[in-house]
Sequence to fold (316 residues):
Amino acid sequence: MNPFDGSNPREALEQVAALLRCSPTSAEVASYLDKHDQLRHLREDFLVPKIADLPPSDLTLVDGSAECIYLVGNSLGLQPKKARKYLEEELDKWAKTGVHGHTEGSRPWAWAENNIEELMAKVVGAKAEEVALMNGLTVNLHLLMLSFYKPTAARHKILLEHKAFPSDHYAVESQIRLRGFDPQQSMLLVSPRQGEHTLRTEDILETIEKEGDAVAVVMLSGVQYYTGQLFDMAAIAEAGHRKGCYVGFDCAHAAGNVELKLHDWGVDFACWCSYKYLNSGAGGLAGAFIHEKHRDDIRPANRGELYAMLSYILRV
Fold:
């Protein structure tokens, strides 16, 4: 039995529980899913920390030599076993060739991002020419917002979820202030209904329909970091475009975690990091996406805008 054929996660758990005649929260269900996971062999490609190597804790009731149960890949992915090999190859090249490593060898440093643009494009469902690998997540978000957020007196709002990742919230607020608007008036926050923890898609779409004429940019997460909710990005993009809004997503918790089709969904822009579910390690290059349809109508931020942004950020 493959519980994931045509099922959403909840339905899959209920199917397995029915098969095993136990509760969906039973350890038997978890064991069954582990045993039948077609990708379980990939676990062997990563280094899982040993309990004894983690910060001090009471180890009297556990085996310190055992691998920990790692549930924080949303903050930092596990180290791939091949990472050390690749790093040592580059350190060896640096030692032997010095500055020539920028332009020589199988992976010249000067064009390092070119080695993985096509691979990254596949991860986010884009064309290679729509993807750039550079900077960090929030820097890329600022650069994208500088290009896409062009507020007017009539259309100046940015729609985002109430509990957006803090750096996203601050970036949006900064962009609004940078353009001379008041976040109290221009930040349109959507919240779950009373007593609920996730946003209903119909509520997001209704907000876009109701407020869309005043919204310049819809800027949501792909996967909400606080609740784990996967947003219906295709439906949100379609609704936003119907009202004349640009639609972008922070895919930091989505890239490498869920299937993305940024090009096919018509998303205008997106950004993400690579150290979470893509396991690049702390400081890994971040990514940015701009749909090819904007090749002629969206231009990178000019030097004056970049200077103004940096001055504002440093000032606050």
Residues 83-97 form the longest helix (15 residues). The chain has ten helices and nine strands.
